[in-house]
Amino acid sequence: MSAIIEMTGVDNVAELLRVVWMEVALACLAATVYFSFVGVLVKPGKKEKSNGQKNVKAMSQTCDHEPTAYQVIAKTLRQGKLSDAIDMLKDLPEIMAGSVPTNIAPRLLMAAAKAANFDEVVAEMSALVGKFESRSFDAVAMEAAKNKVPMIRKMERICRNYIDQLEKPGGKQFNIQNFMMMYIFGSTTNTEYRTRLFNHWPTYLEDFNECKEIMGYRYPETLVEEFLSLDVAKNKDAKILDVACGPGNVAFILKDHGYANMDGLDPSSGLLAAAMEKGLYKKTFCCYVSPDEKTPIEDNQYDVLLCSAGMFPGSIVPQAFTELLRITKPGGIIAWNIADGYEGFNDFFLNYNEIYNQLIKEGKWEEVRPVKKLENMLFDDAGYTYVMKKL
Questions:
Q1: CA 237, 239, 245, 249: dihedral to nearest 10 degrees?
Q2: Which residues span the domain enclosing 74?
Q3: Within this chain, do residues 66 and 117 fall inside the same structural domain, yes or no?
Q4: pLDDT digits (tens, 9 = 90+) for 114-133
Q5: Are 166 and 173 in contact (CB under 8 A)?
Q6: Residues 221 and 332 both lie in one domain
Q7: Residue 170 resides in a domain
């Protein structure tokens, strides 16, 4: 805990929350001021706007079977390859003569604002100075507010619950600062530091179980309940992969029900090591599940894939559904839960329903039962549980 306090520079939860709130507000203001002073914002001009519209229209008339340059750039941004996307934009004469299209600009600016190497990214974007319209910044500000404010309110509620229980007879001190860090990095999609936090947090599972009521978090329990109601659950030797397993929240519960043939997959080596020390898994895979790279798992390996709240920005995205299918045996089960409002997580999740339904149309998987909506999965927030069978 002392390491986390040193990282944040604060010594109590209330001060931490105040710092986070101020940082979000000041970051939006600072970004607007900064980009205004360096000349990124352009003055409204009909000529530049019309040029941009003509260029977008012209490029949209290319062959249906070949993605346009803008589609390639958008995909590159979704993959996190910011420098490559900037280079592609600089190589387009119509961009340099006009402006960055408004369907690309907000994504580019948001990615730049989140970049760990911000100064280097700004230097790379120097050739694009004056190529952004002010409404692109409006879109970025709205997206930031939409994503950050609800998460901060949840953090505030966790802090209130924590202080309330402290003041009750027998109230206990919990490692609440680490959970605050987890939420901060999650809400800003800072995957690198979120993973590094877990690497230095071997007691996550114990801490989570101690303050479960304060967290108001029901994803692991409800997913296990759903699994236990399936026919496949009758086979205690079923080969199970716990995806985005963390320290083993799901496996910890399943072990009490007699399941031992379980493997775990997570990008945090620290959490996987903690899970192995508790004997929760036979083996583990320290990696991400991404749409662009296969996991180190052979085809058709598992009877069941379970993923508790592992689908969010910086973790598993819907474009990676095909990788989950690849490692599942034919007839095997893939079950997961996800928070309500997933369509607004980021660009990856805009096509969540489309990708999900397209795989049904293509005969890749089918619903074992209708998608179930559950209330109060994280405080007042609802969530959805999916149970699919690979065909």
A1: -10
A2: 42-132
A3: yes
A4: 666 666 777 777 777 677 76
A5: yes
A6: yes
A7: yes
